[in-house]
Amino acid sequence: MTDFTSLQTPTSWVICLCADWCGLCHDYRRVLEAIAVRHPGLRFAWLDIEDQADLVGDLDIETFPTLLVADEEGVHFLGPLTPHAETLSRLLTSLQEPGTQRTRHEPVTHRLLQVLPALPGLWLMP
């Protein structure tokens, strides 16, 4: 099993759940790539919820962009986020604070984190 023990390790993920047809998502991808450079201790992935529907499973995506920030221990954040670089950067910084709470993984989020390491084509490389 892959070890996802700390948000500060490269096995912690920031996953953007978007759709190819969404113009906001296209713009946000550049933001996410820029933030990835500023947070080299995290892995970033881009998942089109339609093209990778089998990976997204039953995750409830109501609006774009939706972000999943998680590690093996649980989910740090799952929800929509204002599509601004500083908002995402502040969120990621705050989640690295000691004592940050996680929620328990649903089976779909846990499976997603187990599958992502084998799918480097979905990773955003800074």
UniProtKB/TrEMBL annotation:
InterPro entries noted in UniProt: Thioredoxin-like_sf (IPR036249), Thioredoxin_domain (IPR013766)
Thioredoxin domain sequence ranges: 11-73
Domain of life: Bacteria
Pfam short name (any one): Thioredoxin
Protein's recorded name: Thioredoxin family protein
Organism: Polaromonas aquatica
Phylogenetic lineage: Bacteria, Pseudomonadati, Pseudomonadota, Betaproteobacteria, Burkholderiales
